[in-house]
Amino acid sequence: QTKTGIALLYDEVSENAYDIRLKLTKEVLTVQKQDVVCVSGSDHSANHRTVTLRRQPVGGLGLSIKGGAEHKVPVVISKMFKDQAADQTGMLFIGDAIIQVNGINVESATHEEVVHLLRNAGDEVTITVQYLREAPSFLKLPLGSPGPSSDHSSGASSPLFDSGLHLNGNSTNTAPSSPSSPIANEPKYEKRWLDTLSVPLSMARISRYKAGTDKLRSNAFEVLALDGVSTGILQFYTAQDSADWLRAISTNVSDLTLQNMKMANKCCSPSDQVIHMGWVHERLEGTDSSQLYKFKFLALKGSSFYIFSTPPVSTLDWVRAEKIYNLCEVLFKIHKLWLADDCWLQANLYLGIHQDFDLEDHRPYCFSVMVGHGKSHYFNVELCSELAVWEKSFQRAIFLEVQRTGSKTYMCSWQGDTLCFTVDFALGFTCFDSKTKNVLWRFKFSQLKGSSDDGKTRVKLLFQNLDTKQIETKELEFQDLTAVLHCIHSFIAAKVASVDPVFIDSQSIARKYMYSN
């Protein structure tokens, strides 16, 4: 997607916001700020321009000003009136900060002091100005050219007063003065949007949250490049604007990620392909009462689920993951979906999913990946569409791994005997003696009617005998029971999918929610 629009850049230190323009292309998000540039003639200094205004009997200096030291901002030109003195110079612009008046420095002057100086400066007033690139949004300066018709200011009227200097002031000259027109040899200036920062979107990440917390920024987010370069906090005038930009940028990031995956897969064997990868937030457990989150980069590749602190950019990076889990032994669960402004749908209440987490945080679009030894990772993404992609990708990656693997065997024990327990995609469940290899029992997947476990090592599997129709209970102990239970779940789900893929699709929670909205 390509997109251009006006936004604000929020400074968390000063708590001010500045007008910017955003340009989105397929690969880059560019932040632009307005500045005055010399377009012809000899440029004495585009930063500082000195202009002589001739006060006119009707219209005076032809401008209004805002700001002042009492507001911790310079005095700036806030309005210019078409075809009057200031406009006729061609060298002054709305947003210019007044630095000097007739040689007197006014950078630290109050609003009233500058008004008094300009009103009493005589018929010819020489002012030195510099364009204020980061004018706080509370000044409510128009973003267009001079003239009332171009007053594209960003919202309601400013709390700061506009002092109009289009009146005569203390002029002693009653005859019409010559207009303040530009001299032929003088440089000509224009106000333009200039690129100040470009953020590459390949492997970029987006966050609507204040760093490390679950506090959602209002109509704002930050985009961070792979090398850590940040756009800063991008703030939007409406929730719709914010949502549109978030979706557009996310779409371009996703498209580039897909390209990166295709490039990586050219170097990988068919059994080791990247199914999906991308940024998420991971909630850190065992800290204090406040929820802490960190960016993590997840990848589903071949037989494994990877967790990185930074994306893998070379073949060697894949062995440097923080965590690597076998896909057959993980369980993906959706925990939260966003319904309305302040309404949560917790998946365990409405969709029959077990809830193992304390979900007092305020983030929507949450999922967990349960791994071996009862441990879990809890993640959050920015959009429901991302959650749906992760759900489908985990499902696909696990099913592919089950079909590739065919079977998995685990050491177990019961009543002092060392046994082997095999889950086989074609045959179902088999238990045999680890020494003699004699098969003790075998059941199809369809014969498993239930199970229970003690949450530690022991599990009871309830099978229906095909001949007697009676339930037979088989008890086993495993060193890592969670991994075995996840493996059983993966194999059964893959078996169902191979028989009835439509049923599996109908169970997608995130996609159900997306379509219903």
TrEMBL record:
Transmembrane segments: none annotated. Residues 143-160 have a biased composition (Low complexity). It is found in: Cytoplasm, Cytoskeleton. Residues 143-186 are annotated as: Disordered. GO terms for molecular function: actin binding; structural molecule activity. Its main location: cytoplasm. Residues 50-133 form the PDZ domain. Keywords: Actin-binding, Cytoplasm, Cytoskeleton. CDD domains: PDZ_syntrophin-like (cd06801). One of its GO terms (cellular component) is cytoskeleton. InterPro entries: PDZ, PDZ_sf, PH-like_dom_sf, Syntrophin, Syntrophin_4th. Pfam families: PDZ (PF00595), Syntrophin_4th (PF23012). Belongs to the syntrophin family. This is SNTG2 protein. The gene is Sntg2.
